[in-house]
Write a structure and sequence with these properties.
TIM Barrel; 8-stranded parallel beta sheet; 8 strands; DeoC; Deoxyribose-phosphate aldolase
């Protein structure tokens, strides 16, 4: 497992081609079977059978930091709160920790994710940083507003400067197995995104079965999703390892069928550095080293960043700091 290089090393990969999508092809998923107990056993092995220590663990945690979509999706969000979050996105670690790790420069997070109304303040705060702004859209989190309004929300966020759009699917279409309706809506959303990358949130906690998760993943990718994402963070059950295993195997199958590399984003309930390690190990073992880069892997989180910074400070100093030493914003 110690295939990630020690802290400070860099790896370059060729850019990922955008997913062109395919026609709706039911043969790719309609008869799929998912063995729930086998998926649970495989997922349970991930936290217990793998160990990454010392410099290698620090390298994995820096990589996790670089894959975080630092997120605020609260009803009382303000431009000031977004500005503070963006400042943390640009400098997620204290300078003394960066120096102690031997990093050549300050790492940054994968993106900042906000509501459409907060896109413009985020774009302004991140100007010149190279950090993209992601926006949830399409009636987040329920996705039950009329389709024209959902598409208009995407266009608004893109017009405000969002480079990534996290859309939510209409869960009833999955539960009713209405794959044509789901495909048509997601394809329309992909068109509305234009040049902005689209992450399709499946809200897997509402989909009831892993078979439904696999099928919805495949339809979203056929319709042009650049990423598939587990959850809004608002469902009763959010990202879990068995669900994530099912989704990454779906995107692996899609890649073998089409040649396109699709990204994956777990979100909701991931809070600790240990969570980050578990999902990184899942990606490495199931998909390979390429899926440990932010153009193919993101973690939807906010509080996780504080715990990662705390663990990295311990690596540098040998001491655990109070949580107040790593304020989020």
């Amino acid at each position: 497992m110690n295939e990630l290089r020690p802290v400070g090393a860099a790896t370059r990969f060729a850019p990922v081609a955008r997913n062109a999508g395919t026609p709706l092809t039911l043969d790719w998923f309609e008869d799929v079977q998912v063995n729930l107990s086998a998926a649970e056993r495989r997922a349970a092995s991930i936290p217990t059978r793998r160990s990454v220590k010392k410099n290698y663990q620090a390298a994995w945690l820096v990589k996790a930091l670089q894959c975080i979509d630092l997120t605020t999706l609260a009803g009382d969000d303000t431009p000031g709160r977004v500005h503070r979050l963006c400042a943390k996105a640009k400098r997620p670690l204290r300078q003394d920790i960066v120096k102690g790790l031997g990093l050549a420069e300050m790492p940054t997070v994968g993106a900042v994710c906000v509501y459409p109304a907060m896109v413009a303040p985020a774009v302004k705060a991140l100007e010149g940083s190279g950090i993209p702004v992601a926006s949830v859209a399409t009636g987040f989190p329920a996705g039950l507003t009329p389709l024209p309004q959902r598409l208009a929300e995407i266009r608004y966020a893109v017009d405000q400067g969002a480079q990534e759009i996290d859309i939510v699917i209409h869960r009833a279409q999955v539960l009713l197995q209405d794959w044509t309706a789901l495909y048509d809506e997601v394809a329309a959303m992909r068109e509305a995104c234009g040049d902005a990358h689209m992450k399709a949130i499946l809200a897997t906690g509402d989909l009831k079965t892993l078979r439904n998760v696999y099928k919805a993943s495949m339809v979203a990718m056929q319709a042009g999703a650049d990423f598939i994402k587990t959850s809004t963070g608002k469902e009763d059950v959010n990202a879990t390892l068995p669900v994530s295993l099912t989704m990454v195997r779906a995107l692996r199958d899609y890649g073998e069928l089409t040649g396109f590399q699709i990204g994956f984003k777990p979100a909701g309930g991931l809070k600790t550095a240990k969570d980050a390690m578990n999902w990184l190990i899942l990606m490495k073992e199931e998909l390979g080293r390429r899926w440990l880069e932010p153009d193919l892997f993101r973690i939807g989180a906010s509080s996780m960043l504080g715990d990662i910074e705390r663990q990295l400070e311990h690596h540098v100093t040998g001491r655990y700091a109070a949580a107040s030493h790593q304020p989020l914003a």
